[in-house]
Specification:
The chain has 573 residues and is of the alpha/beta class. Helices cover 48% and strands 14% of the residues. The protein has an eight-stranded mixed beta sheet with strand order 1-8-7-3-4-5-6-2. It has an eight-stranded parallel β-barrel with strand order 9-10-11-12-13-14-15-16, surrounded by five helices. Helix 20 packs across helix 22. The two termini are 39 Å apart. The mean pLDDT is 91. Bound molecules: phosphoenolpyruvate (PEP) and magnesium ion. Phosphoenolpyruvate (PEP) binds next to strand 10 and helix 18.
Length: 573
């Protein structure tokens, strides 16, 4: 009998493969002493050797897939394995104290970790993390336990884990990883967003998938419905193989729309743009017929590494995106770190409510030494295409003015240095905070455009953490309160002759699209893989009818009423 578990559908498609469990294994041991120290030392040396072989493989893999920067983390780990200051005391402890190898390793490495962690130096704190990682690997070899490591997977699998961090997700090799399923997270958690740009089917927020699946179990992930089937029957396998093929066939059929305009059936054009995280996403942007980039999340440039990217490194990435988009509009968002996107090397203090804390524009204005190089890199790249810059998490007009002042200062500095900067850079903000939506008419006089970040706007308006599956019932994109805020922002921008886009996941949502067309949204920015489906849907909608639909929706009392209304008015479309 198969076991079916329900989660939240996070990325379209169907995956069928063996499970690869990405969970912390049990590394406990009972033997603390030995009466055969020579043998223990030998075991320790073997574990060191095997760890080295494994780490070298991981390192080379990371270099190939992710570049030399990311591989450097593993170089640091390899150095620890060769460090006599670390290795000798372990061997001595085995020899002199008759400690077992696992115990000697744990005690000595914990000493180093405590010392490094207590230092008031960022570099040293990172060394503590390196030692923790490496000693875990050596201990696993001593105990004969396999550590999960998604970057060395070399057969078709479905990843099953509690959660995937953005850097875990970035390490997944699309050639082998058919899909993933997690205990926690929602449709707008970053692992879900990444899975859509990697075009990997995903189901998140199952609460307990890691308790129900064992390594190697056959698993089906239905990223269209959120169903996960463990140990499928022959009939289920057949049915899902069929569903998988239909999914691919539909995707092929959609490709016909790649170069078509995005127009409603009564002739209203809207812009369908793509959200990207790195220049590596550009092929998907082109294949899916995006008319521009509505959100370039630059924080991925800063993640999965040990140090801040330099101004030049950033310049290269921004220039590449602008050049490849060939004059189409590119909206680059400045650093939005915080919330579920951490940068360990910034050593930020832990907060009670990270989504309400020191993040994004707040951090950038507080630490201009981080912000200025990004602004300079963007300004330098501005002559290579149609650049628009937007600031994330703006809560007050003052934040916008302060950020704009820094940008203008850097523009002046560059000009003084004889570096050319475009005079035609659009400057906008993300509308993610209810205070900003409420004051949209005032903002509209100063910004060139708005981009509504519904992923956050919904969580702040409904006071429902976007990462929490327990309150996901409150995370309601179609709640009339959200629709009213969206309407207010769009109208405020139009009054001042400005435009409004939306780059939260709601922009690509099949139920939301008719409403957003009706509310007069100008630009829809979404995972590239959602664009063609959205284009097909929009071609079948009438803007006049959708305006009436939206007028009724904002006067509904509940989200269910809105959904029923949309269904009743669009089912024939
Ligand atoms: C948003 O909040 O809607 C958004 C697009 O930003 P992010 O998902 O990166 O927080
Ligand atoms: Mg956001």
């Amino acid at each position: 009998m198969s076991n079916i578990i329900k989660g939240i559908a996070a990325s379209d498609g169907v995956a069928i493969a063996k499970a690869y469990l990405l969970v912390e294994p049990d590394l406990s041991y009972s033997q603390e002493t030995t009466d055969q120290p020579e043998q223990e030392i030998q075991k320790f040396n073997d574990a060191l050797k095997n760890s080295k072989i494994e780490l070298t493989k991981i390192r080379n893999n990371a270099e190939e897939q992710l570049g030399a920067d990311k591989a450097a983390i593993f170089d640091a780990h390899l150095l620890v394995l060769d460090d006599p200051e670390m290795i000798n005391p372990i061997e001595e402890k085995i020899k002199n104290d008759k400690a077992s190898a696992p115990h000697a390793l744990t005690e000595v490495s914990q000493n180093f970790i405590t010392i490094f962690e207590s230092m008031d130096n960022e570099y040293m704190k990172e060394r503590a993390a390196d030692i923790r990682d490496v000693s875990k690997r050596v201990l696993a070899h001593l105990l004969g336990v396999e550590l999960p490591n998604p970057s060395i997977i070399d057969e078709s699998v479905v990843i099953v884990g509690h959660d995937l961090t953005p850097s875990d997700t970035a390490q997944l090799n699309k050639q082998y990883v058919q899909g993933f399923v997690t205990n926690i997270g929602g449709r707008t958690s970053h692992s879900a967003i990444m899975s859509r740009s990697l075009e990997i089917p995903a189901v998140v927020g199952t609460k307990s998938i890691t308790d129900s699946v064992e390594q190697g179990d056959m698993v089906i992930i239905d990223g269209l419905t959120g169903d996960v089937i463990i140990d499928p029957t022959e009939d289920e396998l057949k049915a899902y193989q069929h569903k998988r093929e239909s999914f691919f066939a539909d995707r092929e059929a959609l490709k016909q729309l790649r170069d078509e305009p995005s127009k409603t059936k009564d002739g209203q054009h809207v812009e369908l743009a793509a959200n990207i995280g790195t220049p590596n996403d550009l092929p998907g942007v082109k294949d899916n017929g995006a008319e521009g980039i509505g959100l370039y999340r630059t924080e991925f440039l800063y993640m999965g590494r040990d140090t801040m990217p330099s101004e030049d490194e950033q310049f290269v990435a921004y220039k590449k995106v602008l050049q490849e988009m060939n004059g189409k509009r590119v909206v680059v968002r400045t650093l939005d770190i915080g919330g579920d996107k951490e940068l360990p090397y910034l050593n930020l203090p832990k907060e009670m409510n990270p989504f309400l804390g020191y993040r994004a524009i707040r951090l950038c204005l507080d630490q201009p030494e981080i912000f200025r190089p990004q602004l300079r890199a963007l300004l330098r790249a501005s002559t290579y295409g149609k650049l628009n810059i937007m600031f994330p998490m703006v809560a007050t007009i003052k934040e916008f003015r302060d950020a704009k002042a820094l940008l203008l200062e850097e523009k002046e500095n560059l000009k003084q240095e004889g570096i050319e900067v475009s005079d035609d850079i659009g400057l906008g903000i993300m509308v993610e905070i209810p205070s900003t939506a409420a004051l949209a008419d005032v903002f509209a006089k100063e910004v060139d455009f708005f981009s509504i970040g519904t992923n956050d706007l919904i969580q702040y308006t409904m006071a429902a953490d976007r990462m929490s599956e327990r309150v996901s019932y409150l995370y309601q994109p179609y709640n009339p309160s959200i629709l009213r805020l969206v309407k207010q922002v769009i109208e405020a921008s139009h009054k001042e002759g400005k435009w409004t886009g939306m780059c939260g996941e709601m922009a690509g949502d099949e139920t939301a699209i008719p409403l957003l067309i009706g509310l007069g949204l100008d630009e829809f920015s979404m995972s590239a893989t959602s664009i063609l489906k959205a284009r097909r849907q929009i071609k079948n909608l009438s803007q006049t009818e959708m305006t009436q639909l939206a007028d009724r929706a904002i006067n509904c009392a509940t989200v269910d009423e809105v959904v029923d209304l949309v269904k009743s008015k669009t089912s024939h479309a």
